[in-house]
Amino acid sequence: MTPMMLLALAIVVTLFVVARFVSSGRIPPEKGFRCAKCGNYAVHDERTIKAWRNEKHRFFCKSCHRAWLAQNEEHYRVPSAQPKTGCLVLFAVPFFLISVALAVAKWILTIVV
Fold first, then answer.
1. Of the four, 17, 22, 78, 94, which is 20 to 30 A from 39 by CA?
2. Rounded Cα gap, residues 92 and 97, in angstroms
3. What is the C-alpha separation between 32 and 78, in angstroms, rounded?
4. Cα–Cα–Cα angle for 20, 22, 25, rounded to 5 degrees
């Protein structure tokens, strides 16, 4: 491999790691919460963390949430199984990152050499 390819690969890997770290999202400061209905202590799960990220302040344990879903079945909206991003994004983003990494690598090599 040429030095330019190695540098481009290093930049792509670094960008991927940084993007993965940044996109992991925020987490609540507390490990758990008190259920707003029954008062039991529960540990945050994916559903309550998502609610916390959406600025919700009242959380319900799994059993109370299931009971609410059973009572409000007609109002509960089932999320669609369709992905939120198309296949174009899956090809365009890596292509863009590699193109930028190669351009940066060329620029760095012209400065160094």
1. 78
2. 9
3. 26
4. 105
Q: Closest Cα partner for 28 from 47, 10, 6?
A: 47
Q: Are 90 and 98 in contact (CB under 8 A)?
A: no
Distance CA 11, CA 5 (A): 10
Query: How far apart are the C-alpha atoms of 71 and 76, rounded to whole Å?
Result: 10
Task: Quote the distance between the C-alpha of residue 20 and its chain's center.
Answer: 8
Q: Are 4 and 106 contacting, i.e. CB atoms less than 8 angstroms apart? A: yes
Show pLDDT as tens, one digit a residue, over the chain (113 residues). Answer: 788 888 888 888 888 777 766 655 778 888 999 999 999 999 999 999 999 988 888 999 999 999 998 888 777 666 665 656 667 777 888 888 889 988 988 888 888 77
R_g (Cα) of the chain, nearest Å: 23
